[in-house]
Design goal:
- The chain is an alpha/beta fold and 299 residues long.
- It contains ten helices and eleven strands.
- The strands form three sheets. It has a seven-stranded parallel beta sheet, sandwiched between helices.
- The chain is globular.
- The N and C termini lie far apart (46 Å).
- The structure holds NADP nicotinamide-adenine-dinucleotide phosphate (NAP).
- The site of NADP nicotinamide-adenine-dinucleotide phosphate (NAP) has 26 residues, from α1 and β5.
Length: 299
């Protein structure tokens, strides 16, 4: 049975990936601040970069066939203001993990982001040149090039992830406010192709099973603004859509620049990995089902 080490098994993506991957593979995972017990796999606390030696020992002792790195600091503005720390986590650590993978002949799957692009054109293909506009994207792009020094490795670029989960901040904010009939603001001038978490996890597992290599874009088929996203939630949940006020990203005074249209073209992944990504409407239908199970009596 394939042995997989999932780095960052406690994050939004990592916890779901550990759960699903454990059905088919032997899985070991790491966490930093949030320990999550998984019934079918082991998890170990490793804080990077401080505990890189513990990670080295783990890798040499366990010799996994495959390492999937989901670890990142996803706070784009924090990354912009803490460049040394971000470089260490996103670039230096991936460099070290890459070398360790080479030493034990293990495959490396790196989870990257649509933020490696500048957002000037949208609908980005795998072969489009990266051109990040913020430091988070810049470090992700550098890490991609390190990992791909070995062509059997894999870079999976994710777009904005959503599901019914407390870690999905925007969706929780929209549902929480609209449910209480409170006004919200959503920007209407930046586009992305959000991916339903279960589709992301499903496509990563397919990539493992099919031994995919090189770059794959993992994204939904709908290219939307936050405003469109909030409206789709309001429609499905039967909330008052007039409570949603469109605003420009510029008015939010964000620290890091955001790509205007970071949507990824997912044709290659759908064809090679044999997966169909859900549209926003289909994904929000699933979100609504989960919400109703948790809140059977609420609006
Ligand atoms: N979320 C999105 O919309 C999105 C979009 C595009 C790409 N991505 C990419 O997808 C991947 C997963 O994102 P996510 O949303 O699941 O992230 P997340 O929820 O923030 O999870 C990050 C994971 O990394 C771990 N981690 C963070 N700093 C660490 C450190 N210094 N040392 C060791 N572990 C550390 C966290 O551990 P603890 O929680 O235990 O502290 C957690 O397991 C990332 O590579 C991200 O760049 C995400």
């Amino acid at each position: 049975m394939l042995k997989i080490l999932i780095l960052g098994g406690s994050g939004l993506l990592g916890k779901k990936l550990v759960e699903k991957a454990s059905d088919s593979f032997e899985v070991i995972s790491t966490f930093n601040n949030h320990k999550i017990e998984h019934s079918k796999s082991r998890t170990i606390r490793i804080k990077l970069p401080d505990e890189i030696f513990n990670l080295k020992s783990l890798i040499f002792n366990e010799k996994p066939n495959l390492i999937i790195n989901t670890i990142a600091n996803t706070n784009i503005d924090y990354c912009e203001q803490h460049k040394t720390e971000t470089y260490l986590l996103h670039v230096e650590m991936n460099k070290q993990i890459f070398k360790l993978c080479e030493d034990i002949a293990s495959k490396f799957i790196f989870i990257s982001s649509d933020y490696v692009f500048d957002g000037k054109k949208g609908d980005y293909m795998e072969y489009d040149k990266t051109s990040p506009v913020n430091y988070y994207g810049e470090t992700k792009a550098i890490a991609e090039s390190i990992i791909l020094q070995n062509p059997t490795n894999t870079v999976l670029r994710s777009s904005l992830i959503y599901d019914w989960d407390p870690q999905v901040r925007f969706l929780n904010y929209v549902v929480d406010k609209l449910r209480k009939n409170e006004n919200i603001q959503a920007y209407d001038d930046f586009l992305t192709a959000p991916i339903f978490l279960e589709d992301l996890v499903g496509s990563i597992i397919k990539a493992v099973k099919k031994d995919a290599s090189g770059i794959y874009n993992l994204a939904g088929p709908s290219c939307v603004t936050r405003m469109d996203f909030a409206l789709a939630i309001a429609r499905k949940f039967n909330f008052d859509k007039n409570l949603i006020e469109p605003v420009s990203v510029k008015s939010l005074d964000l620290i890091a620049e955001r790509p205007r249209n970071s949507s990824l073209n997912k044709t290659k992944a759908e064809k090679d990995l044999d997966i169909k990504f859900r549209s926003i409407e289909e994904g929000i239908n699933e979100v609504y089902k989960k919400y109703k199970i948790e809140n059977p009596t609420k609006h």
